[in-house]
Specification:
Radius of gyration: 17 Å
Shape: globular
Strand content: 5-15%
Strand order of the largest sheet: 1-2-3
Number of domains: 2
Helix content: 40-55%
Structural class: alpha+beta
Number of helices: 6
Oligomer: single chain
Largest sheet: 3 strands, antiparallel
CATH class of the largest domain: Mainly Alpha
């Protein structure tokens, strides 16, 4: 596919951290898709807060660059970032199934952790990405989902830097587990 001005505008908008909200991008009437050279692409979830959208778009761009050098070994990173942004998986404008919501929660946590290689993420940040205006009600489900994962898995729940169980009270963070997929 030729590199048109519209392609360059879309990439520039993504690099600038504005996702698909760039002024030069055509949208469908319902706002669910952007149109590039007559082809529809699912738009990012507009309910994602700007700061978190910027991080997820940065992770997506990093993952795309890694696909060029590592090939298929890095495609899971692109998929996680796109699911987190709402561009893949169940449509963000429909009521999500438990399975679809769980997939997006885990993809969001992994994408944010990859963007913060030495850091952690708060369950409320993940809930804000996935839950839109109803994020507060989703936060306990995010905590429960991550607690329900195997202890030797990709993610773990931390309090003051130490792994904790599901009965932990107070603020917790989501961190990388020993089997975190880089």
């Amino acid at each position: 596919m030729p590199d048109t001005g519209r392609h360059r505008a879309a990439r520039a908008a993504y690099r600038a951290g504005v996702g698909d909200d760039g002024p030069d991008l055509e949208r469908t009437a319902d706002g669910r898709y952007v149109v590039v050279d007559g082809r529809r692409w699912r738009a990012s979830d507009p309910g994602i807060p700007d700061r978190l959208r910027t991080e997820l778009v940065a992770e997506l761009m990093t993952a795309r660059r890694l696909v060029r050098t590592r090939g298929d070994a890095a495609r899971h990173r692109v998929l996680d970032a796109k699911v987190a942004l709402g561009e893949r998986g169940e449509p963000w404008w429909e009521e999500a199934s438990d399975e679809g919501r769980s997939e997006r929660v885990l993809a969001t946590a992994r994408a944010l952790l990859r963007h913060r290689p030495d850091g952690t993420t708060c369950p409320s940040e993940v809930a804000r990405v996935v839950g839109g205006d109803g994020w507060r009600a989703l936060t306990p489900r995010v905590r429960a989902l991550v607690h329900g994962l195997p202890a030797d898995g990709a993610l773990r729940v931390l309090q003051r830097g130490e792994p904790v169980g599901p009965r932990a009270r107070g603020p917790v963070r989501i961190g990388r587990g020993p089997r975190f997929p880089d």
